[in-house]
């Protein structure tokens, strides 16, 4: 009897599985990989090329910085995937051109490719900063979704394209730390008169709230903190800051890093060098860039967690109160609105990012409350990110 029931059940399952539309969805397929159609078209004509290419890559980074490793990872991925047909040699800051000369060097064809933090080029167009990090703006997850699925990459390519460059997202190393400081600042009033090292849009925002700001180069920050020339400084993520030793000469880290919720880099390629590549190598470059974007976050965030544990042995982490964070949000919003009124490119990009935040808000709310805290903390009520 049991065997009979089993056979009947099996027959029913097979009948349902083989019946047309047995498990048809009530709606059409939801979502599609937009690249698929492009890939189908290219696969009909693409061939494995035999020509070899040797590219020079320039950057603002020295070899000791984590950003350099991200650029090297990309170059290694390209060389491995192409079987050595595209070999990219890295030149750190000052080896071939100066750190801040890399953009122009690639644009003019003195080098084939560069790696950057796009905010360095704000003097050329303010909108570059929006592709690097925005105060109170997108986090790492947000940048990934916006760049790849909401038109951000196409906007990036249009902006870089004005300078004879083809651009791709080139790595994201997470949220930056707040301020290494010898003053314990938790309220907005505490920041008034504070002498701070920062750069980009945050420099103007801090100035607007009454701080005294200077955009010192990274190599000068330690000495300025040590000698008391500045009270506080931000530079980058925990893993990047740790080798710089700021915890040796400061007492506090003021969190969170409202100035840079995410640190996004780009790869930019001379358009003539790009156009000379056969299609198969172009695909390898694009896929290697995407792989680098995803890998860099996992790698850097793991290091960031380790660096925080080391920092906590020497400095006290303090958190701005909620009112101060809200005031920073308002000061940032007001400043960005003035930029949007002045610069159409900034308005276009920031409006796109803001629309993404609005469209993502319901899902962010509904998925909240189960942040992966350790069990002991979670059961005591620590649920939110």
In short:
Helices cover about 45% and strands about 15% of the residues. The protein has helices spanning about 1-20, 35-45, 65-80, 100-105, 140-150, 150-160, 190, 200-210, 220-225, 240, 270-275, 280-310, 320-340, 345-365, 375-380, and strands at about 55-60, 85-90, 115, 165-170, 180, 195, 210-215, 230-235, 250-255, 265-270, 315-320.
Explained architecture:
With 385 residues, the protein is α/β, with parallel strands linked by helices. The chain has 2 domains: 51-172 and 262-302, 3-Layer(aba) Sandwich (D-Maltodextrin-Binding Protein, domain 2); 176-259 and 314-342, D-Maltodextrin-Binding Protein, domain 2, CATH 3.40.190. The chain is built from 15 helices and 11 strands. Strands 7-6-8-5-9-11 form a 6-stranded mixed beta sheet, covered by helices on one side. Helix 3 packs antiparallel against helix 12. It is globular and about 65 Å long.
């Amino acid at each position: 009897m049991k065997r009979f029931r089993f056979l009947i059940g099996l027959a029913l399952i097979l009948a349902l599985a083989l019946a047309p539309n047995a498990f048809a969805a009530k709606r059409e397929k939801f979502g599609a990989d937009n690249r698929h159609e492009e890939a189908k078209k290219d696969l009909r004509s693409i061939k494995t090329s035999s020509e070899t290419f040797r590219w020079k890559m320039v950057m603002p980074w020295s070899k000791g910085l984590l950003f350099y490793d991200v650029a090297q990872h990309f170059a290694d991925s390209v060389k491995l995937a192409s079987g050595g047909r595209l070999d990219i040699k890295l030149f750190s800051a000052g080896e071939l051109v100066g750190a801040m000369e890399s953009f122009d060097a690639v644009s003019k064809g003195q080098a084939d490719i560069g790696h950057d933090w796009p905010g360095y080029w704000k003097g050329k167009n303010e909108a570059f900063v929006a592709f690097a990090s925005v105060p109170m703006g997108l986090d790492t997850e947000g940048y990934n979704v916006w760049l790849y699925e909401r038109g951000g990459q196409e906007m990036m390519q249009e902006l870089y394209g004005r300078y004879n460059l083809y651009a791709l997202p080139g790595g994201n190393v997470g949220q930056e730390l707040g301020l290494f400081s010898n003053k314990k600042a938790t309220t907005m009033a505490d920041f008034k008169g504070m002498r701070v090292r920062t750069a980009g849009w945050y420099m103007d925002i801090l100035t607007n709230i009454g701080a005294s700001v200077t955009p010192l180069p990274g190599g000068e920050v330690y000495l300025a903190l040590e000698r008391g020339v500045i009270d506080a400084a931000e530079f980058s993520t925990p893993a990047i800051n740790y080798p710089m030793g700021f915890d040796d000469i400061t007492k506090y880290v003021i969190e969170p890093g409202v100035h840079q919720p995410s640190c996004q880099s780009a790869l930019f390629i001379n358009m003539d060098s790009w156009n000379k590549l056969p299609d198969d190598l172009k695909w390898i470059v694009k896929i290697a860039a995407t792989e680098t974007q995803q890998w860099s976050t996992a790698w850097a965030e793991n290091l960031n967690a380790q660096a925080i544990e080391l920092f906590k042995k020497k400095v006290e982490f303090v958190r701005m109160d909620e009112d101060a964070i809200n005031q920073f949000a308002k000061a940032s919003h007001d400043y960005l609105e003035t930029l949007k009124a002045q610069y159409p490119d900034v308005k276009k990009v920031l409006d796109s990012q803001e629309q993404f935040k609005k469209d993502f808000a319901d899902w962010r709310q509904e998925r909240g409350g189960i942040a992966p805290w350790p069990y002991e903390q979670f059961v005591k009520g620590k649920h939110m990110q």
